[in-house]
Design a protein that fits this description.
Blueprint: E1 2-7, E2 52-57, H1 70-79, E3 85-88, E4 91-93, H2 97-106, H3 124-135, E5 137-139, E6 149-152, E7 170-177, E8 183-188, E9 193-198, H4 233-236, E10 237-242
Antiparallel strand pairs: 1-2, 1-3, 3-4, 5-10, 6-7, 6-10, 7-8, 8-9
Length: 276
C-alpha cells in the first residue's frame, strides 16, 4: 500500500521555491529540497485542514507500469488544496510548486524527478520539464486536458538582472477547463496550495467587466520591476506537459533539455493589466 499523507497546520511555513538548483545530497531524490520562492504572490491564509490521506503505504512507491487516469491525477491534486505541508512515505516533500506536482504523481507511481542524466542547473520545475520531454509531450495547446502539467516563465527574477529572461520558474496541474477556455490549475503560489485561472486567449486581462477572473496574478509586484512587467498567468505561460497519453517515440533516458539554450518569444508588454 502506498502512503501519501497531506497534513495542514496552522503555522505558515516560509515560502519555498521552484527556482533554485537542486542541492546535492547523499539522500535519495525524494528528500531533496529547494529554497525560497521569491516570486510567490501572497494570498489570504486558509483555516487549517484535518489530515487528508490519499493512499496509505509503508513501502517505497514502485514505478508505474501503466499510466494513471486523468481523473485520478486531478482528484489527488484537489485533495492537496489548502494543505500547508506534504508528507510522502513518512518523509516531507518540498512545499513548493514542483513539490506539489511531484507528490501528486508519486501517489500513482511516477517520480517526476527521476532521471539518469541531469541538467546541472536544474531546479524542481526543470527536472519535471525534462521528465516530460523524455516521457511525454510538451505543447502549447489547444488540446489541453485535466491532468496535464502547465509551466510558466518569469514568475520572478531568478537571475536578478531585472529582465524577463528566466525560463521555467513555476508549475501547476490542470484541474478543469471552463467553457470560455479559461484553464483552472492547482499550484502552490502563495502561502498555501490553491486554485488559479489562466486564459491564453486573453492573457492581459485579469477580470472581465462582469467580474469573472480570466487570469490570476502569479508574479509578485516588486519595486525594481519595470512598469510594464508581465504578472498574469496568461502572460507568463510557457507550455503544457502531457504525461498521461502514450507517446509513440519516447527518447532515451539520457536526453536532457538544455534550459539555458531554450528560447521563447518575449512576452508582450502588460499594458492592459488591471491592478487589483
Amino acid at each position: 500500500m502506498r502512503f501519501l499523507a497531506i497534513i495542514a497546520v496552522v503555522t505558515l511555513m516560509p515560502l519555498a521555491g521552484c527556482t533554485k538548483p537542486i542541492q546535492k545530497s547523499s539522500r535519495v531524490v525524494r528528500e531533496v529540497s529547494t529554497s525560497a520562492d521569491k516570486g510567490a504572490l501572497y494570498r489570504p491564509s486558509r483555516p487549517a485542514q484535518s489530515p487528508a490521506i490519499l493512499s496509505p503505504e509503508r513501502h517505497a512507491v514502485p514505478f508505474a507500469t501503466s499510466l494513471p487516469s486523468r481523473s485520478a491525477i486531478v482528484q489527488s491534486a484537489a485533495r492537496l488544496v489548502g494543505a500547508r505541508t506534504i508528507t510522502s512515505q513518512g518523509k516531507r516533500i518540498t512545499y513548493d510548486c514542483a513539490g506539489v506536482a511531484r507528490a501528486v504523481f508519486l501517489e500513482h507511481g511516477i517520480d517526476l524527478y527521476r532521471a539518469t542524466a541531469r541538467d546541472v542547473n536544474a531546479n524542481g520545475v526543470r527536472l519535471i520539464y525534462n521528465h516530460v520531454h523524455r516521457r511525454g509531450v510538451l505543447h502549447r495547446g489547444p488540446d489541453v486536458r485535466p491532468g496535464d502539467l502547465v509551466f510558466f516563465d518569469n514568475t520572478w527574477d531568478f537571475n536578478g538582472d531585472g529582465k524577463a529572461n528566466d525560463p521555467l520558474t513555476h508549475i501547476g496541474i490542470v484541474e478543469a477547463l471552463e467553457p470560455d477556455g479559461t484553464v483552472i490549475f492547482i499550484s502552490r503560489v502563495a502561502s498555501a496550495i490553491e486554485r488559479y485561472r489562466m486564459n491564453v486567449e486573453h492573457p492581459h486581462v485579469h477580470k472581465t467587466p462582469d467580474g469573472r477572473v480570466l487570469n490570476d496574478y502569479i508574479r509578485r509586484k516588486h519595486p525594481t520591476d519595470p512598469a510594464d512587467i508581465a504578472r498574469l498567468t496568461g502572460e507568463l505561460f510557457a507550455s503544457y506537459g502531457n504525461l498521461l497519453s502514450p507517446r509513440k517515440d519516447p527518447p532515451g533516458d539520457d536526453t536532457v533539455v538544455q534550459i539555458q539554450d531554450r528560447r521563447h518569444p518575449s512576452n508582450p508588454s502588460a499594458s492592459a493589466i488591471l491592478e487589483r
